[in-house]
Design brief:
Layout lengths: L14 H15 L10 H8 L3 E10 L9 E2 L3 E7 L2 H13 L4 H24 L8 E3 L5 E8 L1 E14 L8 H5 L6 E16 L4 E7 L5 E8 L6
Parallel strand pairs: 1-8
Antiparallel strand pairs: 1-2, 1-5, 3-4, 3-6, 6-7, 7-9
Helix pairs in contact: 1-3, 1-4, 3-4
Length: 228
């Protein structure tokens, strides 16, 4: 499913801003040193016991007023210190995904690389504990405890395999964006992105549903043909 158009499209960026944003995406995706987060306050909060909890549910909303919700499976949730560079890169890739079929197909893999690069930078900074990752329970719930007080970003991914032959009847991605001929299948990707602020002794709850996702994309699976 292609991301929904914005009700109020953002103002056009100048060429210099677009170039800077693109460079930032490339730096993060290539694994370059670009950690823009001061980790000391998070460390100090943990040492002082200034911690809270982040909980949530991931589910498909009922299609009837009184029907039950359905937990969503195959979702992983990562909590990351709020990084303006990470958020800017994600937003730029989301915006670029609207421009062409090629950019749409490239967006989700690039977002994954950007996130993994940021997580590596946290490891290199000596704070791997500031990037906790958890899989949701069968009930679609998650809970991250002992979270240092501060600004965080919740990033949740769902990735479901879709066979190309079976996708004809239900894959809007294939109707809107024709995948390449050598694609044998793809992962239907849903990403949720939420900014939260954790305070000492408090619990922050987030509700992630099939109607409030941040981005939907694909990760293509291709054959290794000769010459590729």
């Amino acid at each position: 499913m292609v991301p929904r158009p914005l009700a109020h499209p953002p103002a056009r960026l100048g060429a210099g801003v677009i170039a800077a944003s693109t460079l930032l995406v490339l730096l993060l995706a290539s694994g370059a040193e670009a950690l823009d987060v001061v980790v000391a306050p998070y460390r100090e909060a943990a040492q002082a016991g200034a911690v809270g909890t982040v909980t949530g549910r991931v589910y498909a909303e009922s299609r009837t007023p009184s029907g039950p919700v359905r937990p969503l499976a195959a979702v992983t949730v990562t909590l990351l210190p709020r990084s303006p560079a990470l958020l800017a890169s994600f937003e730029q890739l989301k915006e670029d995904a609207r421009r062409s079929a090629k950019a749409f197909a490239a967006a989700a893999p690039a977002m994954r690389r950007v996130q993994e690069s940021y997580e590596r930078e946290l490891v290199q900074a000596g704070v791997p504990d500031l990037a906790p990752r958890i899989a949701v329970t069968p009930e679609g719930a998650f809970r991250l405890a002992e979270v240092p007080a501060g600004a965080w970003v919740v990033v949740a991914w769902q990735s479901l395999p879709v066979d190309v032959a079976a996708a004809k009847a239900r894959g809007r991605e294939r109707n809107l964006y024709q995948l390449e001929a050598r694609t044998t299948g793809f992962q239907a990707v849903t990403i949720w992105l939420r900014e939260v602020t954790v305070a000492r002794g408090e619990t922050v709850s987030v509700e992630l549903t099939d109607r409030n996702e941040w981005f939907r994309g694909v990760i293509e699976e291709k054959t290794l043909d000769a010459g590729h």
